[in-house]
Amino acid sequence: MSERVRICMVGAGRVGKVHSNSIVRHVPGGQVVAMVDPAREVLQATAGEFGIPNRFDSLEAALEQCDFEAVIITTPTPTHRPLALMAAEAGKHVFLEKPMALNLADCDEIIAATRRHGVVLQMGFMRRFDPEFAAAARRIEAGEIGQPMMIKSLTHGPGLPPPWARDLTTSNGMLAEVNSHDWDTVRWLMASNVERVYTEVANFKGPANRIDIPHFYDNVLVNLRFENGGLGSISGVCPCGYGYDARVEIVGERGIMQIGDINGQAVVVCTNRDQGLITPIYRTWPERFAWAYILEMEHFVQCIRAGTAPRVGGEEGRWAVAGVLAGTKSFLEERPVYLREILPVGRSNA
Amino acid sequence: MSERVRICMVGAGRVGKVHSNSIVRHVPGGQVVAMVDPAREVLQATAGEFGIPNRFDSLEAALEQCDFEAVIITTPTPTHRPLALMAAEAGKHVFLEKPMALNLADCDEIIAATRRHGVVLQMGFMRRFDPEFAAAARRIEAGEIGQPMMIKSLTHGPGLPPPWARDLTTSNGMLAEVNSHDWDTVRWLMASNVERVYTEVANFKGPANRIDIPHFYDNVLVNLRFENGGLGSISGVCPCGYGYDARVEIVGERGIMQIGDINGQAVVVCTNRDQGLITPIYRTWPERFAWAYILEMEHFVQCIRAGTAPRVGGEEGRWAVAGVLAGTKSFLEERPVYLREILPVGRSNA
Amino acid sequence: MSERVRICMVGAGRVGKVHSNSIVRHVPGGQVVAMVDPAREVLQATAGEFGIPNRFDSLEAALEQCDFEAVIITTPTPTHRPLALMAAEAGKHVFLEKPMALNLADCDEIIAATRRHGVVLQMGFMRRFDPEFAAAARRIEAGEIGQPMMIKSLTHGPGLPPPWARDLTTSNGMLAEVNSHDWDTVRWLMASNVERVYTEVANFKGPANRIDIPHFYDNVLVNLRFENGGLGSISGVCPCGYGYDARVEIVGERGIMQIGDINGQAVVVCTNRDQGLITPIYRTWPERFAWAYILEMEHFVQCIRAGTAPRVGGEEGRWAVAGVLAGTKSFLEERPVYLREILPVGRSNA
Amino acid sequence: MSERVRICMVGAGRVGKVHSNSIVRHVPGGQVVAMVDPAREVLQATAGEFGIPNRFDSLEAALEQCDFEAVIITTPTPTHRPLALMAAEAGKHVFLEKPMALNLADCDEIIAATRRHGVVLQMGFMRRFDPEFAAAARRIEAGEIGQPMMIKSLTHGPGLPPPWARDLTTSNGMLAEVNSHDWDTVRWLMASNVERVYTEVANFKGPANRIDIPHFYDNVLVNLRFENGGLGSISGVCPCGYGYDARVEIVGERGIMQIGDINGQAVVVCTNRDQGLITPIYRTWPERFAWAYILEMEHFVQCIRAGTAPRVGGEEGRWAVAGVLAGTKSFLEERPVYLREILPVGRSNA
């Protein structure tokens, strides 16, 4: 085997742990040589857990003092642009968590910088690598259900996002932080861009959670029309409490396809006929997408080694951000919003 | 057992057959003594099949020549108003198929006439009597999933509706003819009226089916906001080809509930590992809602005998029509439409 | 419609109620004109509930004082022979609950008497009429899974059978009272007679239930070899507590088939990710086989009216009893037992 | 991270590939430094695929010329004893595929040799590491379904085993080569040894597959009684054609548990209402037990590094062999066989 790809993990939190675990345990072609996090204790704990030798409080410091070829950026969205640009300018390959950035200008800068420096840019849309989603995509593409007509994609998460991720002044809220995956999934499986969106939101648990920021919502339902005439919806509920739930249903001209199950492990128990059968549900996203997280890291390392473009890159990240922005504008203005209202004029959106 | 309720079945088509079968075979308290249909051959065939002795080409003729206490109206929507009024004015109890009527004025007339003459008016929303939907409703009401926040209801039907049922000049199209059940279901299970709607439609199979009427659609996805702040969607696909599919998913403050399965009979077969397991799907609505159709007829007969109000009557029918009208206006005007734009001013909508 | 078949229901207990309900509500061609039960209060309650006018404490009294064409015998097994003979000799058609009788001589007498008097004899194997079992049988017969090689049939019941039904001196125990259905099912679906059996039994809950009769068991597992070389098993657990569970799995030369689901109603709820999804289970046999109980009564009435032989009659009942006797002998003697050891010599067992 | 455990893979066939893949891609603490196979082409192909540098035609040669700490033995059963002894005597840790050996004397020798030389002996019962089986075992042990009363374990494999594996003169046939896992599973989950067994076998596809060796069978169904009074069955069908199927059902005093699903990937499709829904089935064992194969290798490496005993070792392998021998004796002699008839007298069977 050739040399392993040396990686600097930026962010020692939950996502940083998941990716470190994937690389350390399941991606022999990669190696996490450094970890960056300004929170000293979290950094030491996570780096210690995964045996990561070099630890820094900033990417700048890491770039100066440590040798690596790639970064994995898992920090909050507002930091994506500066970190990705810094990495690209230093010639490092970039794996960037979703959502790509807060706005399209930032997305464009990131795309331009990685292109200019000839480095890989892969977006953290791990559903593309989930064996079920990937098999479904192949089967749709092969025509099994005919031309897709209607798609529904949902992501319901068990817990309350952190304060910055639910405030529209510091992020694009749940539509971005939770539903970015759905924005990418619907475009991927429909093989068409979204043309216009209409969004309704609701706030059911805000008061009980003492959240009084403007425009806070914990339920969202977006109606979609695609450029190819197809329809769709994206829904988000967070916190939903009952589990981590990510499913898609597609109706094509020839049939229907359901991707993902509401139940998890196939261990069914019944001890009380008045209660009924009990089946585990996925509790968390790392559990639901265990293989997907491994396989996206494997893919990143392979792309770097082979010099090939990743299956999911900057354009995909940018379209998801565009959807989020249109979806948000829609509920703020209480009207359907066209993606062309959001996308910069005169730019080709491949 | 006391005397059986004598019923005149108006309409000898598919729905007339289903209801005749229910009464003849499973509702001993009722008796189909007459059948009405202008199509002579269909009338003779269906009446013959179910041993219905008196046969007429119009309700008028039946009222004149035959003794009965109730009518079941299963004819196309445009006939609902005149037939229901005629029956009510003759003092007959009325079971009326969905959709109730073409517009709210007609609904109001029907409601007023049945009230004035003191006869029962039951709407053909059989899902209210489906053991699964009914159990789900009781469990939601009992608080099992907490306050409902988001509901999704779908009805996908295998075949193409008849020409009158897909033309907006003679009916209210698929939203009415197929999705009336969903309009009633979401209001029932959310325990709240719809406040505003936004609709997207698509036409995928029209050309292949040589349909070139204006505004034809075979896919519809409606976004809903309820008066209580909840969200929802209704979707329709017709013809979907793959089966008869009617399912609901509700997320409440405490959990999720799924009503109805995509699979039908529990007979699972695998004979080819490259193909996989095969499970039957419901082919038709009479199959999917077999018990519901029996139980709604039983309920109608019981209400007549006991002089009680049916669980689902004119108000429910009227709200479904209001939803359909708002939903249709939305896609024609490409904007969210409030139910209050549709509902007559100054009328209390209990 | 011609005259209704007049029926005398013998036994006012649980099974008598189920059959009365089926006929009164769902079999317009039949009429329960009389009910027999020596337990006066039970008789009055059940007959009252179903509006059955004539009530007797013995079949003899009913035969003398009331006019009917058929009897349905739902009383404990030891009474089957005398009641069935009395009815046949009086020229009444007989519907006989399982198990047919306590031994093969009794079965033979019942078969002979009903043949001699030219009356219908239908056995209460309602699974033959269950839409799922019936569809499965048709599909197996059509060759869908090829030649059946191995079948497993289970019946687990929630509660403790009555004392007479668990004592080998007054009945043939659980193998007969609970698993008679399985004995019929495996023979039906394998299209072959059982050739030899080997039985293991266990007694787990006897002490807690204060049962100290000899040979009591509450778990049974029978290994089967069929005349056509196929294999199989029958299992019984009673009381199992967790629900009413009746399922079959068959492997044929071309594939596998599963009949029946462990879950009941398709209403799935999750309110706690540490607990998981909850799905109802069938609580009781009348719930699980609701349609089957209706359809077997419809069939009985049709056979009487049309003068045709029922789909499941005396031979089927007799084979099930033979299996029970061989299965019981096997665990008592701790060895495999051939059916030919049980079956009378020189008699053709078609 | 400390030094990696150096491993020699003995056998370059299907199982050797699965384990090599697990270690190379997913067990960073281990390293396959050598591979042994007398079949030169297979050896070169597999070793090449996984980048294994040292290649030998015998374990002897590997021991002489290469430095490693552990062996993984994946060769046909008759070779297990000599290879395991050779490895143990050279002080190498041993991972041994199932079945452990052809007879109990061989098992005892292997156990004694590994004990004497203080090396780890882990058996290839990967189901112990499957997340579903492992979770189920924990839940049973925690009392969730109460005292287990009855267990059914099945393994149906798609293809025909190789000639040596179906001939009782060179192996112990399907009961050993396919159902070894079931023998281990039932003992593990019932927490009790098997006391006696009764076996029926059938030969349905032998003629079509041109197999005319004595006692060949392709269907087997074993009835079990456990020392604690519980009952059970093991079934095997090979070739079953329809997929790889491994499931367990357990009834305890308080309820039922099902482990494993017949369906595989949660991608459900319906394109034809006359056919129904299609769900993938597991095609092969490496697919069904993907995580289990990784986790058992991880466990082996951890045990070596930590000097701890594996969760599943020689005693477990030996009990499975004892079950196989009793089960085989049973069908040859057509009688129930006690395990004590098989087990050497005077040896404590912990």
Task: Give a quick set of tags describing it.
homotetramer, 350 residues, alpha/beta, seven-stranded mixed sheet, six-stranded parallel sheet, 12 helices, 15 strands, globular
Structure write-up:
Four copies of one chain form a homotetramer. With 350 residues, chain A is of the alpha/beta class. Helices cover 36% and strands 23% of the residues of chain A. Chain A contains twelve helices and 15 strands. Chain A has a seven-stranded mixed beta sheet with strand order 12-11-7-10-9-8-15. A six-stranded parallel beta sheet of chain A has the order 3-2-1-4-5-6, with helices on both faces. In chain A, a hairpin with a 4-residue loop joins strand 9 and strand 10. In chain A, helix 1 packs across helix 11. The longest helix of chain A is centred in the last third of the chain and has 20 residues. Chain A is globular, with a radius of gyration of 20 Å. In chain A, 61% of the residues are buried. Chains in contact: A-B, A-C, A-D, B-C, B-D, C-D. At the C-D interface, strand 7, strand 8, strand 9 and strand 10 of C face strand 7, strand 8, strand 9 and strand 10 of D. Strand 12 of chain B pairs antiparallel with strand 13 of chain C, so a sheet runs across the interface.
Short description:
Four copies of one chain form a homotetramer. With 350 residues, chain A is an alpha/beta fold. The first copy, chain A, is built from twelve helices and 15 strands.
